[in-house]
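Good day; I would like, with your permission, to put a structural problem before you. What I wish to show you is a protein chain and, alongside it, a tokenised description of its three-dimensional fold. Here, with my thanks, is the record as I have it:
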Amino acid sequence: MERLQKVIANSGYCSRRKAEELIVQGKVKVNNVLVTELGTKVSGNDIITVEGKALTKEDKEYILLYKPRGVVTTTSDDKKRKTVLDLIDTDKRLYPVGRLDYDTTGVLILTNDGELTNLLIHPKNNVDKVYIAKIKGILSGLEIKRLEKGIIIDGFKTSPCKVKVKKVDKKNNTSLVMVTIHEGKNHQVKNMFLAVGHEVIKLKREKIAFLDLKGLKPGEYRYLTIKEVKKLYSLDNKNA
């Protein structure tokens, strides 16, 4: 027996978090009976329908995309902008793990594995996300310490992080800064720098855990190997 939201996520229908929302909203039935309790457990013989559609098991797919600028990290867009799914050739129902802003580039994982998605985005698992930010101005030692200790943004305090100045351009008054965080709040890196008085000009996510952009150009993608997927799952045991 497994929790209903986990079974829905593992089917590839959506992430576990989204599955929980759908259950609470009364959009899930088990054996044609409406279920709204998150603790509900089901077996492999139960018939589950979500939003009127019967769940079917789908082979898992894992893609690493080099997200380019000018693409939204959603499965669809009401403004008719290009989405990350438009860059992928697949018949699977994939969704992005976390988000990158419209003008932010870099590593993005897309999958139909809700369990892995939950593992990678949950702050308690401390999965490293490494960004390179080009900012206006030059960071002071005090500003670096403030960022590393955690900073208040809209009533939320960021977790401790790593900050390393990679390059300083005194002539143009800009800096390249590497930031390693574990969270993924909306516009988090940009807002962190704004909080200490520096605007982000460009932002690129270099790595998620051990995965980087090696061998890829903007807009290109590759499938993760079985070994890489197992290594990602092992992060859960490492942080247990």
User: Anything to note?
Assistant: The chain has six helices and 16 strands. Residues 2-54 form a domain with the Structural Genomics Hypothetical 15.5 Kd Protein In mrcA-pckA Intergenic Region; Chain A fold (CATH 3.10.290.10). The CA atoms of residues 61 and 91 lie 10 Å apart.
